[in-house]
Amino acid sequence: MKLFTKEFTRTIQKAFDLHEDTATHEEIQQRILSGGQVTGTNMCVLICAILIASVGLNTGSTAVIIGAMLISPLMGSILAMAYSTAAADFVRFRRHFYGFMIQLIISICVSTVYFLLSPINAPSSELLARTQPSAYDVVIATAGGLAGIVGSTRKDKANNIIPGVAIATALMPPVCTCGYSIAHLEWQMLAGATYLFMVNTYFIFLSAVIILEILNIPKVNTLTEKQWKRLRKMMIRNTILILLPCIPLTIFMLSK
Fold it and tell me: Comparing C-alpha atoms, which of 96, 114, 86 is closest to residue 39?
């Protein structure tokens, strides 16, 4: 019985050991950081994804929205920021953060122009669905971020995971919903869509940082214990601040 228990425990530990089939640190770095580059190609793909998502949201077509999520490059920038944070490479973090903000601004501008020109003014059910975030979205974003970063750090890169994560975490639709809200001066919708995007982005980022820390990503800068404590406190504070609005929103959703 003791031997069985020991063997069973070893099997469980091996099943959940993230280090078992991890790619080299160099390979992980190359994969993640190359996916977060803001290039002319990525920007063209981004604009195409914005237009596809905007049309899908405008016409209420779920299939079209899924297509936009699959080709959107926004996830790559978030994972690159997470890698830079885990590696204590703050210069690179700022570079990827600025790139992400450029992508976000372009996304909102293009979607706003589309909805200003579109003859369909009434909000579809797909648009309205992106304006009511809840605690369930936190769970989805966290689980999606964990799956995405684990898939990206395997020896045999799990390419089938990333498309699923892109669909589950839904980064592009709330951004385009922001464009609709601005075009039609719907400020309550804008607040809901912006918060949903923040939840998805932050918890993908946070879960990716945690996994990369577990994998002991090499540090670019050596931080003191005091600096690490300050960084951890800042992330805990940000997590609490982003989670707080979820509580009343979830209660309101469940009471309907």
Answer: 96
Q: Where does 60-134 have alpha helices with state H?
A: 62-71, 74-86, 90-117, 125-129
Q: 225-243 vs 246-255: helix axis angle to the nearest 10?
A: 30
Token couple for 198: 């923040």
How far, in Å, CA of 149 to CA of 86, rounded?
A: 12
Task: Report how far residue 111's alpha carbon sits from residue 127's, in angstroms, rounded to the nearest whole number.
Answer: 12
Give the number of other Cβ atoms within 10 Å of residue 85's Cβ: 23
- Cα 23 from Cα 153, distance rounded (Å): 6
Angle at 57 between CA 54 and CA 60, to 5 degrees: 145
Q: What string of DSSP letters covers 154-222?
A: BSS--TTHHHHHHHHH--HHHHHHHHHHHHTT-HHHHHHHHHHHHHHHHHHHHHHHHHHHHTTPPPSS-
How is the chain split into domains, by residue range? Answer: 23-255
Distance between CA atoms of residues 97 and 74, nearest Å: 11
Rounded-to-integer distance, Cα 179 and Cα 173, Å = 10
Beta-carbon neighbour count of residue 200 at 10 Å?
28
Rounded distance between C-alpha atoms, residue 22 and residue 19, angstroms: 5
Measure the CA–CA gap between 172 and 50, rounded to whole angstroms. 7
User: Residue type for 89, please?
Assistant: D
Per-block mean pLDDT, blocks of 10 residues, the chain (256 long) = 58 60 81 80 88 90 84 85 89 91 93 93 86 85 84 68 62 91 92 90 91 86 78 86 81 68
Cβ atoms within 10 Å, residue 234: 10
